[in-house]
Amino acid sequence: MAIEQSGLEEHLKKYFGFDQFRGLQKSVVTSVLNKEDVFVIMPTGGGKSLCYQLPALMQEGTAIIVSPLIALMKNQVDAIRGISDNDGVAHVLNSSLTKGEIQRVKEDISSGITKLLYVAPESLTKEEYVDFLKEQKISFLAVDEAHCISEWGHDFRPEYRNLRRIIDRIGDHIPIIGLTATATPKVQEDILKNLQIPNATTYKASFNRPNLFYEVRPKTDQVDADITRFIKQNEGKSGIVYCLSRKRVEELAQVLQVNGIKAVPYHAGLDGKTRAAHQDMFLMEDCDVVVATIAFGMGIDKPDVRFVIHHDIPKSIESYYQETGRAGRDGGEGHCLAYYSYKDIEKLEKFMSGKPIAEQEIGHALLQEMVGYSETSMSRRQFILHYFGEDFDPATGEGGDMDDNMRNPKPQREAIEDVKKLITVIDAAGERYKAKDIVKILVGKSNAMIASHKLDTHEYFGSGKDKEPAYWTALIRQVMVARYIRKDIESYGTLKVTPEGKKFLQSGETFMMSDDHTYNQEDSMPAGGGKAAALDDKLVKMLKDLRKKVAHQKKVPPYVVFQDPSIDDMATKYPVTLEEMANIHGVGDGKARKFGKPFIELIERYVEDNDITRPDDLVIKSTGTKSGNKLYFITSIDRKLSFEDIADAKGMEMNDLINELESIVYSGTKLNVGYWVDEMLDEDQQEELHEYFLESENDNIDAAMEEFDGDYEEEEIRLYRLKFISEVGN
Length: 730
Ligand code: ADP
Ligand code: MG
Description:
By secondary structure, this protein is of the alpha/beta class. Helix content is 49%, strand content 11%. The strands form four sheets. It has a seven-stranded parallel β-sheet, with helices on both faces. The protein has a six-stranded parallel β-sheet with strand order 8-13-12-9-11-10, sandwiched between helices. Strands 14-17 form a two-stranded antiparallel ribbon. The chain starts with a helix and ends with a helix. Magnesium ion binds next to helix 3. Adenosine-5'-diphosphate binds at residues 18, 20-22, 25, 42, 44-50, 301.
């Protein structure tokens, strides 16, 4: 069919009301109209649907669209019906239809009304449908989300593997168009091989989304508060927060709600009606935030999603790219924030452990890429694009400074000698080993495999032992992105030297590298909450000086006034009222009243002097799940019940009970635990401990244990500390 290219815009306008094609759409549409086999790789939101919808509408016959999800198909059918006078123009064929409905579909197809027929791959295998479709005029067959064909994609569906066989049964020369947003070279190869379209005209759009800002933060136990704060600072904007589990979705949605954020949960455990209602609320802007499992988002097409937060790290970069791709579709701001902790990676690995070995290997390899993304200190955009086989230069590319690493670069150092060492070792060891083994060889650490391959007898074994394993891991990633080495996916990630790498050995080029982030839980974030970066060091120092003064006046140790995490939290949230102070980590009403005033005054002056925009209303409340227990503990202690009975009544270990009591006492509520301490410790002992805590610089239990060198059990010291803080500090 020869359609003038210039006429295509008119059709675009007529059917979709759009004035212009986006990116590669026009070329793709032209190819499809020319009956070519076509392969389209375009990021999520790029406008793939139109690539088959428009030619289908313009041509005679019915286009078969294979798509993995029924919900997704329904949305598309509704959309197409919306632009046509005849509902028959698009249909879904699936097992949920009644006999009568199926009849209607068939009639519409036979009479040439239906231009688009959406089917799930498993429906397409039905004899009855195949026999029917054989007799119809089929314009082409489109395989949407074609990465489902590949085990190396993030959403493998075995049924997709049978498509070629079925197409052959339906007709001889049916053009095939495959579409996907997953661009790794391996997945692309699988798609072409499986659909048997080796000569397909391939259109690959850039995966760069210049308007998206990428950021990774360490995940600590303050993650909920951090997310709440982020959302409050972005009040009124639409956003999605992804969590791994349904339980987490529910909990976090609640935390956001009690903090006055219009948030709703979304996961597969909710009934269909609730899910639909919540999705609508989001689309209609009756709520700002959806907290969801990955069940949410497929086919969601809200152009002004301003942030996508990952409470848990996803299982692959494809998933991450796809999920973050829902931000900023209109080209406006889109903040992509992921919380990373290696513990979560281990959790995901555990989930995989029941699966067949081959699948585990793949899952593990995909996950390691995610670790690389999270820990790297290089341009995150460059890292993602490299993963998708695309070159990107952060110095010149669009969006080059749009990530945390580029905004706050780590110091760089010359690493040319180490790069040469690395390339030499990979080469000398026969290009047969994965990154983690190469690191072991470099630092000279043997394992069973290394010993059995006698690698430890070589001169190069241990040649890089002057550096830490983490250094080499970081270097490998950065050298890989520079394309001097590559990871061979076929052999599960063994490292190979590229021709460019060989050339580099001879050249005098430099290689600057920077260390990865370590995201060490303890030192990257104050326990009291707030991300480390937000902490105001100058204010911390002033607050600590004030604390010292107050402690001196009241003749108590400074930590009795406020603990360090509380000070850190104040320097993040700048509380200027007693109420705000009471919501600082580790500070309750009582403590705020007793010690808060001078601190508030200092902060107020500081905020004013330094012209600081205070994160308004950033008072993060917890859901109070433990408040029921809290009341029980307080009343039980008033009644002088034994701690053992209290713990038993709540099914807790003594250790956990003391934990809870500590959090009550430290936030300023007095507990009269003396009766129980009297049971455990005699008068002399109590006096000794009292002296110790009064004199000590901190209330650290380990330090106390050391000081008394085994005279007391840990539990005894903690118990006494409870009494001490209660009496002296409250
Ligand atoms: P993909 O399948 O690639 O993720 P979609 O096909 O769902 O993307 O399209 C994403 C959005 O872009 C849709 O809202 C669609 O209507 C819109 N869109 C597609 N092509 C154009 C165009 N040429 N002009 C304006 N909007 C477009
Ligand atoms: Mg799509």
